[in-house]
Amino acid sequence: xxxxxxxxxxxxxxxxxxxxxxxxxxxxxxxxxxxxxxxxxxxxxxxxxxxxxxxxxxxxxxxxxxxxxxxxxx
Length: 74
Known about the structure:
Elements: H1 7-32, H2 38-72
Helix pairs in contact: 1-2
């Protein structure tokens, strides 16, 4: 198990993984339809998206949390 002090990084890893997987599949399907090598194309798109999404979530998450706290406190 990972220490609770790394909770933010673990959340970012999981969230960016799930979101990039879903979005890359949806966008690949919208752009290409269900072609013969769809799964391979999707997985390639997911790996590229994940490489961008993980550091992006690490940077944006603190800002999003502060904004959510402001919105939710009203």
